[in-house]
Specification:
Number of strands: 24
Shape: globular
Pfam families: GATase_6, SIS
Protein name: glutamine--fructose-6-phosphate transaminase (isomerizing)
CATH architecture of the largest domain: 4-Layer Sandwich
Largest sheet: 9 strands, mixed
CATH superfamily of the largest domain: Aminohydrolase, N-terminal nucleophile (Ntn) domain
Strand content: 15-25%
Distance between the termini: 22 Å
Structural class: alpha+beta
EC number: 2.6.1.16
Number of domains: 2
Organism: Onchocerca flexuosa
Keywords: Aminotransferase, Glutamine amidotransferase, Repeat, Transferase
Number of helices: 17
Oligomer: single chain
Length: about 600
């Protein structure tokens, strides 16, 4: 798992070399996430409209630049083929199943004809059972990955269910997958089509058109479906077809290109030309378009004949009936390294500005603190009897850093929960609790699952834990549109700007500041705490200048680092407010 990027151009002529460049740039934008191999798939025939046309699969262990050099040596880059419509997919992989090898890299394929190809983020937890069944059916596996079972499974369902659409085949496939995934599919059986879906792993779609969108909301179409395969792994009938998925929505609305279809396709714009960018990270899309849709869990997005439609099988009261087109506030220069040697160094030096951005418009001249994201819920929050802070890693340490001052200012018990432990214990939650879920990305798997507290029962139903019990949920994130942002009642956006470095820096300090401002908001009507509050507010306003003074010590810190970096162990000690700093420092040094 690591980074997904896919690009589909519809009636927008592109040389194959241009398409490859777009895919490679998308991978380069996500290099900060860490990875050990990279790969992509593009069409390999001048006429890519016929079923079964050749697809080139290019994968290499190492950096994206290694893949880039490999492509330069092949015929793929040298010819001048132009495609009016084309689908390409790409991926950077960090090995979870199988060692870093070319064959284990993504995209993974269903057979040697590259009939189905997929790129995947996440982990399929039941892949061994599915793989064992498919091997009994005669399917051979060339990689050690969990991802390969996905394309082998869709191939198996395709062979048993002729006539199903690409989207239907993907819907049928994901019904039998357990775990977390974000997937983008390409197939030479369905030229010019792209299907993407997610569950527990982020995925967004960027839209670029020659004209303005006619609406900012895509309707969600719900399908009636039954599993293609039995749920009994030991039963020989497992994975035998029971019923082809039938759409629950009939329409005579014409699909782009003038063809009628009984599958839901919604024309969001009146222009034929369109480009779509599917990515696991907004940084890969921002240079192409700022109009994006964030997919929800179990959404299946289908791009066909230039039209995008979003489908679901599961229907629930809390599932929005539309997906909003949102505008990214991210700027390309924000994710460029500039004159710094690393992103982490750059973001350390951005902290004076990020702190100002976190406070901007929230700490007023008279010392009043206003957090717009929670103001409608403030009376309910003030009636609570316990604050629960759930997080992982650096976000957990930011919560730990604030526990003391939150208890002091709110006079409420503050409970810290490591998200993974919270899940294992099924912690009791009460109606008068307020639960914070803290995550820079808003997609941290354990923190997100703690929000939902996913209970996987025999029926595979998913129940949310905190909301039904009446507790109020608050998200503290740095990413607008993230899952935690969307699924909590309210929240605080820390406004630290994009954090590319793996080790958190400016997001960590902005999370602390956001929690301190929350505590100040909770105590604004307490006369006995007025002096203490004023001292804290004055200290916060001085913070950017104090950070600049610390950053002037860069040369001294470097001298110390050169002296001790070869030591086998380091002991970092502190207590009180410094305890969290010790833990965070140790985490970064490790």
């Amino acid at each position: 798992m690591c980074g997904i990027f896919a690009y589909l151009n519809f009636l927008t002529p592109r040389k194959r070399s241009e398409i490859i460049d777009i895919l490679l740039r998308g991978l380069h934008r996500m290099e900060y996430r860490g990875y050990d191999s990279a790969g992509l798939a593009v069409d390999d025939e001048a006429d890519n409209t016929k079923i079964g046309s050749k697809v080139a699969l290019l994968k290499k262990v190492g950096k994206v630049s290694v893949l880039e050099d490999y492509i330069k040596e092949s015929h793929i880059r040298s010819d001048n083929i132009v495609y009016k419509t084309h689908c390409g997919i790409a991926h950077t992989r960090w090995a979870t199943h199988g060692s870093p090898r070319d064959v284990n890299s993504h995209p993974q394929r269903s057979n040697t004809q590259n009939e189905f190809l997929v790129v995947h983020n996440g982990i399929i937890t039941n892949y061994r059972e599915v793989k064992e069944y498919l091997m009994k059916k005669g399917y051979e596996f060339e990689s050690e990955t969990d991802t390969e079972v996905i394309v082998k499974l869709i191939q198996h369902i395709t062979n048993k269910c002729e006539g199903a659409s690409f989207r239907q085949l993907v819907e049928a496939t994901i019904q039998h997958l357990e775990g977390a995934f974000a997937l983008a599919f390409k197939s030479n059986r369905f030229p010019g089509q792209l299907v993407a879906t997610r569950r527990g792993s982020p995925l967004l779609i960027g839209i670029k058109t020659t004209g303005r969108l006619s609406t900012n909301h895509f309707p969600v179409f719900f399908s009636k479906a039954r599993r293609f395969i039995s749920s009994e792994y030991a039963n020989e009938s497992y994975m035998e077809p029971t019923m082809v998925i039938e759409t629950g929505f009939k329409t005579s609305t014409p699909i782009k290109g003038g063809e009628a279809s009984n599958e839901a396709a919604f024309q969001i714009f009146d222009y034929k030309e369109a480009e779509y960018f599917v990515a696991s990270d907004a940084s890969a899309v921002v240079e192409h378009t700022k109009q994006v849709i964030f997919l929800e869990d179990d959404d299946v997005a289908m791009i066909e004949n230039g039209s995008l439609s979003i489908h679901r099988i599961k229907r629930g009261d809390e599932i929005p009936q539309t997906r909003e087109v949102q505008n990214l506030t991210l700027e390309l220069q924000e994710i460029m390294m500039g004159n710094f040697k690393t992103f982490m160094q750059k973001e350390i030096y951005e902290q004076p500005d990020s702190i100002v951005n976190t406070m901007r418009g929230r700490i007023l001249d008279n010392g009043t603190v206003v957090l717009g994201g929670i103001k409608d819920y403030l009376l309910d929050i003030k009636r609570c009897r316990r604050l629960i802070l759930v997080a992982c890693g650096s976000s957990y340490h930011s919560a730990l850093a604030c526990r003391q001052i939150m208890e002091e200012l709110t006079e409420l018990p503050v409970v810290l929960e490591l998200a993974s432990d919270f899940l294992d214990r099924e912690t009791p939650i009460f109606r008068d609790d307020v639960c914070f879920f803290i995550s820079q990305s808003g997609e941290t798997a354990d923190t997100l699952n703690a929000l939902r507290l996913v209970l996987r029962l025999i029926s595979k139903m998913v129940f949310k834990y905190c909301k039904p019990r009446g507790a109020l949920t608050i998200g503290i994130t740095n990413t607008v549109g993230s899952s935690i942002c969307r699924e909590t009642h309210c929240g605080v956006h820390i406004n630290a700007g994009p954090e590319v470095g793996v080790a958190s820096t400016k997001a960590y300090t902005s999370q602390i500041l956001s929690l301190v401002m929350f505590a100040l908001t909770m105590s604004d009507d307490r006369i006995s705490m007025r002096k203490r509050r004023n001292d804290i507010v004055n200290g916060l306003q001085q913070l950017p200048d104090l950070i600049r003074e610390v950053l002037k010590l860069d040369d001294e810190v470097l001298t110390i680092a050169k002296k001790i970096y070869k030591e086998r162990s380091l002991l970092i000690m502190g207590r009180g407010y410094n305890f969290a700093t010790c833990l965070e420092g140790a985490l970064k040094i490790k």
